[in-house]
């Protein structure tokens, strides 16, 4: 084999090895960058989910507070209705007694 051809083959082999190493390095770097972008995006999604969750918790607490207020008001209304019903019975009893003792009736 000719020395020049041997040198050319060695140089070609070295160039091929360097190209493979560069391709692997670039590919590895590209994968690492893609993974980092994925981590950043996932972090953004998690942060947004955390904010939405806090907002939902706040709205849920507000709804529970309103429901409790409505239950209290309903209980008060029922108490007032019961008191009014009792007053009406007393008034009707008094009317009946008045009718009983009224000599003109």
Note the topology.
Layout: H1 3-101
3D structure, described in words:
The chain is 94% helix and 0% strand. With 105 residues, the chain is mostly helical. It is rod-shaped and about 150 Å long. The N and C termini lie far apart (146 Å).
| Biggest β-sheet description | none
Total strand segments: 0
The N- and C-terminal alpha carbons lie at a distance of 146 Å
Discrete helix count: 1
Computed over alpha carbons, the radius of gyration is: 45 Å
Averaged pLDDT, please?
A: 93
Order of helices and strands: H
- Taken from the alpha-carbon principal axes, the silhouette is rod-shaped
- Name the structural class: mainly alpha
Strand content: under 5%
Helix content: over 70%
Write out key terms for the chains shown:
105 residues; mainly alpha; 1 helix
Short description:
The chain has 105 residues and is mostly helical. Helix content is 94%, strand content 0%.
């Amino acid at each position: 084999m000719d020395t020049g051809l041997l040198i050319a083959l060695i140089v070609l082999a070295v160039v091929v090895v360097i190209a493979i190493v560069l391709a692997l390095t670039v590919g590895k770097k590209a994968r690492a960058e893609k993974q980092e972008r994925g981590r950043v995006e996932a972090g953004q999604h998690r942060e947004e989910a955390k904010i939405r969750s806090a907002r939902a918790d706040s709205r849920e607490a507000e709804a529970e507070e309103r429901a409790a207020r409505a239950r209290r008001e309903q209980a008060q209304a029922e108490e007032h209705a019961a008191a009014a019903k009792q007053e009406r019975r007393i008034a009707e009893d008094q009317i009946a007694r008045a009718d009983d003792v009224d000599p003109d009736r």
